[in-house]
């Protein structure tokens, strides 16, 4: 298993990813904005809640299955959209999408992915989400929406927390900028990461696959394709634009990047079917709440009108159970599956998801539960401040 049998948790995959990736790519994956307080707090916030064990449970089988946006999911986990997955392994988004399908989980593809909408759809016939930005040129967004519909994706997710990129200082230190300004140490790390470098020499395509950088603006601007795609994200979007997008799409829609009660209500009014409670993995505004901290108030405010997805800081099965108990329908993971992908491709993602399933089954048994419908806020204790 190429060492994957020695990975027993997310931190083990993280260590293996660090040993295999060139330094700039590992830190791009691993880092956050400014002082990385929100990045650390996303995980730490889960530790402020405790779970209550129980002595007995019904004799029925353990059932982890849930329904997400009208589609079945084998457990309350979905895979978040992440950009440029080719940076971390040659199997890119395809390796992750196939692993999600094997596990019976939602896979999400990013606008900034390195694989096309159509190729992901061909590789994964299961439930899928395409994550989109509202662009300055609305025709780009329209085209992405139409391709998503034609490819049979289940839902659309619109990201609303990136009007400008966060200040990711690790990337400044490693030279992971646009254009790249790699330090001598960063360049040396490519030689150390022999396997990754050999794979890159065989397949050097690191493009953003779903946005075609063409037209007069691109030609005149002297921008790289990545710079062009970033430039196209409209920093002035409003809730009226979200309503417009819902009308263009017409199907289930997730608003990604909401942390506050009022924005959650506005998302519902704009036509959202679900909210991804997220601070972009601590990569945008630092010093903002962890998603798990925002969850209870948002659930109280929206009642049962919206499905709630907790995105950020999930590392264990117990984190997922805590989120469900506090009102989440499902949890989304990003860094964990990218660590696993970097460690061992699609097989690494398979192992990670199997470990999470085993943790969830074991933890539910220890809590005296058979299924997630039996988990409630009464099973959670808030630790003293």
Based on the model shown, name its key terms.
385 residues, alpha/beta, TIM Barrel, eight-stranded parallel beta barrel, two-stranded antiparallel ribbon, 16 helices, 13% strand
Break the fold down into its secondary structure elements and pairings.
Layout: H1 10-20, H2 23-30, H3 37-44, E1 49-51, E2 66-68, E3 71-73, E4 77-79, H4 92-103, E5 106-110, H5 117-123, E6 128-132, H6 138-150, E7 155-159, H7 169-174, H8 184-192, H9 194-202, H10 216-221, H11 225-232, H12 239-249, E8 253-258, H13 261-269, E9 274-278, H14 291-302, E10 307-311, H15 317-325, E11 330-333, H16 335-366, E12 380-382
Helix pairs in contact: 1-16, 4-16, 13-14, 15-16
What does this structure look like?
- This protein has about 375 residues and is of the alpha/beta class.
- Helices cover about 45% and strands about 15% of the residues.
- Strand 8, helix 13 and strand 9 form a beta-alpha-beta unit.
- The longest helix is centred in the C-terminal third of the chain and has 32 residues.
- The model has no long low-confidence stretch (mean pLDDT about 95).
Tell me the distance between the termini.
Answer: 43 Å
CATH fold name: TIM Barrel
SSE run: HHHEEEEHEHEHEHHHHHHEHEHEHEHE
Question: Which structural category fits the helices and strands?
Answer: alpha/beta
- Relative helix content: 40-55%
Q: What's the pLDDT, averaged over the residues? A: 93
CATH homologous superfamily identity: Aldolase class I
* Major pleated sheet: 8 strands, parallel, barrel
- Rg calculated over all Cα atoms: 20 Å
Show unreliable segments: none
For the record, the CATH architecture stands as Alpha-Beta Barrel
Q: In total, how many beta strands?
A: 12
Residue fraction in strands: 5-15%
CATH top level class name: Alpha Beta
